[in-house]
Amino acid sequence: MTRSPLTHYEALGVTPDADACEIRSAFRELVRQWHPDRNRSPGALEQLHLVLDAWTVVGDPERRRLYDAQVRSERSAGCVSFYRRPSLRSRLALAVGRLLRLRTGRVE
After folding, report:
1. For residue 12, what are the CA distances in angstroms to 19, 66, 76?
2. pLDDT for 42-88, tens place per residue?
3. Domains of the chain (ranges plus CATH)?
4. 38 three-state secondary structure
């Protein structure tokens, strides 16, 4: 199971001061590396989703500006970033738990 990175920059393997060309290059390389057609390892799809999520934010100049401001304010306040994506295992566990509660009629 892969570790969810703390920032989108870590997911792309670049620094926060990287320029758009460097970010795009890192994104393309990681997509080639983790795409399921090329990589059949169990965590490849989850890693690809992390890369795609990071690109969605950091690849767009306006979203990147807002993200950087949010990260700065959270770090100064000592908060954990809400941009951190939960692992696939934890999302599946929550979904299975909900289905079991619905099936047995238990409501919490």
Report:
1. 13, 18, 23
2. 889 989 999 999 999 999 999 999 999 988 887 777 665 555 555 66
3. 8-104 (1.10.287.110)
4. coil
